[in-house]
Each structure stands twice: as structure tokens, then as C-alpha cells.
Amino acid sequence: MATKETMNKTESTFIAKSTIKSGNLDHRRKINFNMAKYNAVVPAGKAQFNDLMAAREHAKNIKWNAIEHLDVMLEQFEKNISARGAKVIWVETAEEALTEIGKICKAKNCKTLVKSKSMVTEEIHLNKYLENQGIESIETDLGEYIQQLDNEPPYHIVTPAMHKSKEDVAKLFAEKLGTPEGLSPQQLTLVAREKLRKKYVEAEVGVTGANFLIADTGSISVTENEGNARLSSAFPKTHIVVAGIEKMLPSLTDLSLFLPLLATFGTGQQITVYNTIISGPKQKNEIDGPEEMYVILLDNGRTNLLANPKTREALYCIRCGACLNACPVYKNIGGHSYDTTYSGPIGSVITPHLKNLKEYKHLSYASSLCGNCTEVCPVRINLHELLLENRYESVVEGDASVSERVAWKLWKQASLSRRMMNMSNGKMKNKIVNSLFKGWTKHRADLDFSQKTFNEMWKERSCKP
User: What band does 5 get if pLDDT is binned at 50, 70 and 90?
Assistant: First the structure.
């Protein structure tokens, strides 16, 4: 349970970080540059759909089916992938997930572990845990590798190092890897390739996430542009998959819709470069692949979202990052200001339920409610409505301050009373309301009431001969 001190600290940290970042013009220039490149290519990706809205609606219905029957489909997935030798482990919390991964690594005498890009492993802070266990954990995605070198968490769900320019990366490589200064992006990529290729053959364990879990075949689907996830899952003798339980799709045929949608809304591509379907460890008639495969199915607060028929819709998310790129708040304050694994609109919706509503309720208020996030979501999640639902829940649970509750009670009484609304002029109302709602006027202009109410003006008009 979060204490009042913790809640205040979390909110204060967010306000402090976002205040600094929103005023940092260099930061804004970098992310606007990268988002402009994204916005330029997305229309080309969308052009592959004859009826994009119908495709998005169909995808939403498929995810609705998966989430409404999640218990049945998870068991179906477990049965099918277990039949081919994979071991499925159910965990309720991040701590349980780390413990299970630790047991596997200890049994395999793991000293080096390669890991592909995975937000869920960021969620459970896997790298920090492995470091404490004396295990070298290497991020193999280029963006994640850059962030790991700089000792920073991912900045964005899809593009972890979006806030860095090529000059920033060149400087970082020079400092951390001893490369010559001023290398080009191509040269930097070759340096990372050389460093990482050695780790694939050294590693005893490889870890990936899962973009989708397929119920009817018992498979995991991994989509990427660099091939590092394919190497991380194939080279080491042990492959560990860490996936949130919400990643479920009913059928393998659903990928024909979801892979193009994810590619288009994630990076503007028609299809991602590498799309891999893994249905277990190496079989008897196969010559390559891991000898053992473990699939860790993680709850970690997801059933809190599932329990509420309204917030359940947030579990449809396919982690494309489109809502972050569309959000005016995110574009001003950046990903690190949220101080959570999942940032932007989707992060503001799910984080209070994955962690603690009281401690993270402020994220749901950090929105203009413009609805742009809902407009761009490939599976049509009503994100702005879910932000309002979070606000409502926090008020119902009594998280609003006493002064705020009193102010709104007085506002309600006044609004429901025609006599009170008509009893004073605009100046008097302005003085009363602006003194009551200090939180509103702190970052906004004062409320300015009309000198006469509509009721008064209507009466004057009606009484004229």
C-alpha cells in the first residue's frame, strides 16, 4: 500500500521532470524530428488496407474475444505448446517471475544472457536482477543496447532511444566502447553488430518477449526489424519467453491481420522485416534451435484491469506506440518524465492498475483529453475515456483532497440552483470560483464568467415587447 509520502513523491517527481523536459528545446527538437519521420511513412503503410477502419474494427473484435475468454485460451495455449516440450510457468508478480528466471539460470550455470527487446522484462526490471545475481545480461536490440550503455530505461515503447540524435549515440559509443568520435550511423551499427555477435554464441540463456501468444497452435509470435530476437532465441541452448497474459490471439490465422497492423502503426512499414513463430524447443527431426524452452506467463496487475469491464479494453493493446507519437503531452515531456515502464496515453491508463492507483493516479490527469490517442489506436481502444474512468475511480476511492471535494460540492450546489446562479454578476462569480479552484488556475488563465447568465438574457429577450 502506497503511503501519502510516496504518492506525493511520485507525483512531485513527475511534475518536476515534465517541467524541465517541456522547456528543453533541444529535447523537443530531437523527438519532433524522429516523430516527423514516423508521420511521413505511416500513410504508405496504411495504403495496403482496402478498408482500414474495417480492419481496425475486426482486430478489436478479435482482441475482445481473446480477452473475454482469456482463461480458456491461456489453458489451450499451455496444452498445445507443452505437447511439444516447452515448459509453461504461471507467475502472479514481478518478484515471482524473477525468482523463476533465477532458478532456470542457476540450473544452467548461466554467466551470460542475451535478451531481445521486451517491454515486459523492463516492467519486471530483469537486467537489474540478473546483475545482482552476477549474470551478464546483454540487450541485443540496437536501441535497447544504446540505452543500456547509457544506463537509461527505454524512452519509447517501440523506439527506445528516440530522444537521442546520431551525434549523441556517436559520443556515447566513444565514451563507453572507445570508438573514434563522429562515426556515422552505419559505422555505429557495425560496431554494435561486432560486439553483439560474439555474445550470441557465448550466452547460455536467451530471453525474448512475445508480440502475440497463439492459442490454437500453442505458439509465440515475435516481430522485429534487426533479427536479434531470432538469434537470441535460436543460439543459446535455453530460451526463456516472458509474456504478459494479455498477448493472446485465438488463432494463427489472426496474424495475417495483426502483423501488418502492428508494422503500419508501429513504424509505418507494410510488414516488419523478421516475423518469427516459435512453437517449442528443438524437435527430434530439427537440427537447430534451443534444447529447452520456458514460457513465463505474467499477471503483475493485469487481472486488475481484467476485473473491470470498462478498463478491460486496455488489454487489447498491441504495443505499437502510435498513441505516444500522437499525444501532445508525450511530445512535450518525453517518455522518461512518466517514470514508469509504459509511458504516454496507454501507460497513463494501465500503470495505475499494474502498480497502485493512489500512487499513479496523477498520470491519468496528465492529459488534454483531445482524443488523438483513440483516433490513432490500431485496435480502437477508447483511451481518452479510460483516462476519465481512472480519474473517476480515484475520486470514488477518496483520493481527491479535502479542498477539491469541498470546492466541487459547492460548485454542484450552485450549478443546480437557478437562484444562486442568477444572484451575482460575473465579477463576483469570477472571484469566488477562481479562489476555490486554485489547482485549475495555477497553470491556466482564470475562469471568466459572463456578466449575465443565459437564463437572465433569455428572460430579458422574452420580456421585450
Answer: low
pTM of the model: 0.90
Rounded to whole angstroms, how far apart are CA atoms 101 and 297? 12
CA distance readout (Å), 337 to 244, 331, 436: 24, 11, 29
CATH homologous superfamily of 48-300: NagB/RpiA/CoA transferase-like (3.40.50.10420)
Q: How far is CA 22 from CA 12, 18, 34, 277, in A?
A: 15, 6, 17, 41
Give the neighbor-by-neighbor strand order of the sheet with 248-249: 248-249, 212-214, 219-224, 274-278
Cβ neighbours around 236 below 10 Å, total: 26
Of residues 290, 241, 205, 263, the one with CA closest to residue 59: 263
Residues 6 or more apart whose CB falls under 8 angstroms from that of 353 comprise 301, 304, 305, 311, 314
Which residue type, as a one-letter code, is found at position 161?
A
**Residue in the block written with cell 562515426:** 183
- Residues 86 and 278 sit within 8 Å (Cβ to Cβ): no
Ranges of CATH 3.40.50.10420 domains, the chain: 48-300
Length of the chain: 465
Place of cell 476519465: 388
Task: Report angle CA 437, 443, 448 to the nearest 5 degrees.
Answer: 55
Residue with cell 509465440: 220
Weakest mean pLDDT among 125-139, 255-269, 420-434: 420-434
Report the percent of the chain where pLDDT is more than 90.
Answer: 78
pLDDT tens-place string over residues 69-113: 999 999 999 999 999 999 999 999 999 999 999 999 999 999 999
The per-residue pLDDT for range 12-45, each reduced to its tens digit, is: 999 999 999 999 999 999 999 999 999 999 999 9
Supply the mean pLDDT for the chain: 92
